[in-house]
Amino acid sequence: MSRSDAMSRGYLRSKISPTAFFLFNIVFISLAQSILLFLITTPTYILLLASKIVGDDSTLIDLIFSRVLTGLVLFEWFADQQQWRFQQAKKEYLKTAKVPPRFEQEDLDRGFVVKGLWSWSRHPNFAAEQAIWFTLYQWSCVVTGTLYNWTIVGALSYSILFQASTWFTETISSEKYPDYAEYQQRVGMFLPIIFPGASDSRKMGNTIKAKAGALGEPAKRRSS
Description:
The protein has nine helices and no strands. The chain has helices at 3-15, 18-40, 43-54, 60-96, 105-110, 124-144, 152-176, 180-186, 197-223. It starts with a helix and ends with a helix.
């Protein structure tokens, strides 16, 4: 379970009755998501059928799509690693009040990561995850020479689920972190809003410094 999934389930548990949460667990978490996971893999069935017709030899199309999928998996891994390292650093910072190496205090005080891939997308790992299954679906279309096929149901349903769950997760983040609304304005949910998105997100650190300085001014005046 990802950190955002755990946070969402914990928030939902606090808002609804135990009975309602139990039913949600049974109907959606256990049943609906299992069906959805089956549906997103159905393009492999099309690829299997196609291999029985055209043979098992790899083609240029197979090479291209397999490399794209590998790249997307690596992209998602890097995004997850950046998030994990930040959360571990924040945990250490909150426990010891010492800033870990390669991190800045204003980033940890902010509470959420805005560097690296997260300066271009608020959820780069989610973006890659959706792209993986749409790429697999598109692969099944190309090898069969069709514009679309029935297996799009899985990728499309998965994307709809991500839209809803990400909106829910960000609702929680907006309540928890004061600067998250600004982050939403500067950085796209899945895709960059504008090309120089990285520089925009880095400006958030300066904004927080300015706020901290403004809060410190009254204290300085009183002490003087």
